């Protein structure tokens, strides 16, 4: 696998008008996957899911409260959009995050809908 920087695949377009601004509170549902180029949509093992927990996740976008890939990707999504965000470790949990050793240095995918 080559190095993946940052890819946004729009699954369902949003309204194309209402985009969040840095500092806005956003609420998303998501599945988090490890990257696996042998699987459909490159979705490997799912490691997290707000949908499975039955409650969306709310945060202040663009303020460093979440991984960098989310801050960048969510700011590019319009209201109602469903996108697949794929990004390398430098946009995720980094190369040396000991708390998340299971996904350390892996390319992550986040199937997010605002």
From TrEMBL:
UniProt xrefs under SUPFAM superfamilies: FKBP-like
Record lineage: Eukaryota, Fungi, Dikarya, Ascomycota, Pezizomycotina
Keywords attached to this entry: Isomerase, Rotamase
PPIase FKBP-type domain mapped to chain residues: 23-114
Superkingdom field: Eukaryota
Pfam families: FKBP_C
Role: PPIases accelerate the folding of proteins. It catalyzes the cis-trans isomerization of proline imidic peptide bonds in oligopeptides.
Matching InterPro entries: FKBP-type_PPIase, PPIase_dom_sf, PPIase_FKBP_dom
Residues spanning the signal sequence: none
Organism for this UniProt entry: Emericella nidulans (strain FGSC A4 / ATCC 38163 / CBS 112.46 / NRRL 194 / M139) (Aspergillus nidulans)
Family: Belongs to the FKBP-type PPIase family. FKBP1 subfamily.
GO function terms (MF aspect): peptidyl-prolyl cis-trans isomerase activity
The protein, known as: peptidylprolyl isomerase
Isomerase as UniProt keyword: yes
The EC number(s) this enzyme carries: 5.2.1.8
Keyword Isomerase: yes
Catalytic function, reaction form: [protein]-peptidylproline (omega=180) = [protein]-peptidylproline (omega=0)
Gene3D superfamilies for this protein: 3.10.50.40
């Amino acid at each position: 696998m080559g190095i993946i920087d940052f890819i946004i695949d729009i699954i369902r377009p949003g309204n194309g008008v209402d985009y969040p601004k840095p500092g806005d509170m956003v609420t998303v549902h998501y599945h988090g996957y490890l990257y696996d180029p042998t699987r459909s949509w490159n979705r490997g093992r799912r490691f997290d899911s707000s949908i499975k927990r039955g409650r969306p996740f709310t945060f202040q976008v663009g303020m460093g409260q979440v991984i960098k890939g989310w801050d960048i990707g969510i700011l590019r999504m319009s209201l109602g959009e469903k996108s697949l965000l794929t990004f390398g470790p430098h946009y995720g949990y980094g190369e040396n995050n000991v708390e998340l050793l299971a996904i350390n240095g892996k390319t992550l995918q986040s199937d997010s809908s605002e």
